[in-house]
Amino acid sequence: MAGYSVTTHVEASPATAYTYLRDLGNLPHWDSSVRESVAVNSQRADVTVGFYGKALEAVYEIAESTEPDRIVWDVIGKANGRTVIDIEPAEHGCQVTVSTTIKLSGIARLLDRGLGVALEGIGENVEKGLRKALA
Hints:
Blueprint: E1 2-10, H1 14-22, H2 27-30, E2 34-41, E3 44-51, E4 54-66, E5 70-77, E6 79-90, E7 93-104, H3 112-133
């Protein structure tokens, strides 16, 4: 199992950040590892993630949603995991924390160490993407 956690201050209000981040269709705009996100409904999206030059398909499903401070979604596919987004009010905007854990299944588990390294870079990009998207 591998993961990352990033916290960043954004200029958007907690309500604006929540609405934007709750929409799984916005994923490619703030997470550069997501190539495409097609909403199936308000709770689910079919997502294509780039991983070491390969496209991995997954389903992202909202598991918990507490407006305006928490969003949790499960990742279901060859890589399974969970992303938790916590939003806290702050002076001039809000603080957003994104924590993701991913577990590869089957023989792909041999790539867990590489996944850990890749997720560190993804975490850094997510932090930059959040600041830009929610400016």
